[in-house]
Amino acid sequence: MANDKTRILVVDDEEIVRESLGGWLEKDGYAVETAPDGPGALARLGAERWSILIVDLKMPGMDGLQVLEEAKKRQPDLAVVIMTAYATVDTAVSAMKLGAYDYLVKPFDPEELSLMMQKIVSQQSLVRENAVLRQALKREYQFRDLVSKSPAMQKVFELARTSARSHSTILVLGESGSGKEVLARAIHAESPRADGPFVAVSCAALTESLLESELFGHEKGAFTGAIARRKGKFEAAHGGTLFLDEVGDIGAKLQLDLLRVLEDRRFHRLGGNEPIEVDVRIVAATNRDLRKAVQEGRFREDLFYRLNVIPILIPPLRDRREDIPLLVENFVERLAVEMKKKIDGVATDAMTALMAHDWPGNVRELRNVLERGAVVATGPVIQLPDLGLPGRGEAAPRGGTLASLEEVERRHVSSVLAHTGGNVSQSARILGIDRVTLYNKMKKWGLRRDGEEEGLPRTGETPIGR
Fold first, then answer.
1. Angle at 338 (CA atoms; ends 332, 339), nearest 5 degrees
2. Peptide bond before 151: cis, by omega within 30 degrees of 0?
3. Which option is the CATH number for 2-136: 3.30.70.120, 3.40.50.2300, 3.30.300.30, 3.40.50.300?
4. Is residue 443 within 8 Å of 410, Cβ to Cβ?
5. What is the mean pLDDT of residues 375-398?
6. Which pLDDT score, from 0 to 100, does residue 5 have?
7. Tens digits of per-residue pLDDT, 105-137?
8. Are strands 52-56 and 79-84 parallel, antiparallel or unpaired?
9. Which of 301, 321, 344, 417 could lock onto 380 through a cystine, CB 3.0 to 4.6 A?
């Protein structure tokens, strides 16, 4: 009988109630134990797992509601039934607020008890089945920390798994925030180098001279301020993977230096004469069109072909909207753990808005929006206003002129700058890019810190989104 897997703890200060109730439940096939008071019940709950707790409301010392409150802290998924001879609306409301499943009025019919237990067992079984199915779906749609059900991303996962087993250089292509570094880490974890280090370098965050020192290290006295020898990221990644993020942003000299390392697997520290050999697998990433950069003479063709051995293109989130509910569920679960806060999900209208948004910042922007919602939400469900998404009025009107992707990005950057009151660091975090990249975009589009275009008069308007 399936009931023998259901463990029930009966708590009542009257021995005759414990014995009669336990006898009825055992006849139905349940595994039953009893406790004479609240402290004894809590001790059993702290030591063992139980399916159902049946507790009397009126007991000396610790009453049933106190036991209920403490029991839910120890075992949140425990189904608790309150027994009472003094059933009132207030009693029922208090019990339900504290998480009780239901209550029984003494004296109760054994058949009523049996039906309630069957209902609880069926519900718990359904919850377990749903949890198993969710985990199975996640395994099916998951590649390490990446989740997706879209056919395009499943092809990305398949190519990433296959290429991870090789030692070839991989070039990950995709927009900012699409998950290029997360994919690079997954490739490393699936590779024969998984036990080695994974070292990440943002090529856009440093000047060329600093990046050169960061990659190759330097000898003491190599330049002003070089007071000691320092190993670079290539040496730090020996035996593992070096992830070069935004590799399309490096200058001509570093392009040549990087090409030589890829060809010879050796380099010199700045100011050094001794060649250093390294065993490093390169995974590079960029949001730029490197073929176009090659045609325009801004990127070396020979380096491009060295990096482009196995190209993997991550599609933007707006092209795989079917992934949004799966990503939302995944992020909400993580945020609940990180924040130690009960978050059951998002409201229906909030999910509709998330599905409709264009996500210029891609998956990273979605995560940031959900984090904001989790922080400001006053209940267990994230509501639409909690997300802080742009209002419908900010979108292009139906039948109006459609903006280019670059224009949509410019508007979004402008909106975020205005929202943060010109805080570049905070704006960069929201957009999922580094400050250097944001400054470059502001310069390119002539945007001030307040989000307005250069040359326009400053206004006293409230920042967008406030």
1. 85
2. no
3. 3.40.50.2300
4. no
5. 73
6. 74
7. 888 888 888 999 999 998 888 777 666 655 555
8. parallel
9. 344
- Give me the half-sphere count of Cα atoms (radius 13 Å) on the Cβ side of residue 459: 9
pLDDT band per the 50, 70, 90 thresholds, residue 104: confident
Cα–Cα distance, 332 to 344 (Å, whole number): 8
Strand order in the sheet with 198-202: 198-202, 241-245, 281-286, 170-173, 310-313
Top-confidence residue, 417 or 81: 81
Quote the longest CA-to-CA distance of the chain. 92
pLDDT (tens digit, 9 = 90+) per residue, 343-373?
Answer: 888 988 889 899 999 999 999 999 999 999 9
Q: What is the mean pLDDT of residues 224-239?
A: 86
Of the candidates 459, 397, 451, 403, the residue with the CA atom closest to the CA atom of residue 424? 451
pLDDT of residue 33: 93
Of the candidate CATH numbers 3.40.50.300, 3.40.30.10, 1.10.8.60, 2.60.40.420, the domain formed by 318-445 belongs to: 1.10.8.60
State both tokens at 207. Answer: 């000047």
Residue spans in the chain of domains classed CATH 3.40.50.300: 146-315
CATH superfamily of 146-315: P-loop containing nucleotide triphosphate hydrolases (3.40.50.300)
Distance CA 412, CA 418 (A): 10
Reading the block at residue 242, the tokens are: 């070096």
Q: Give the rounded percent of residues in the chain with a pLDDT score beyond 90.
A: 45
The backbone torsions φ and ψ at residue 435, rounded to the nearest 5 degrees and listed phi first, read -65, -40
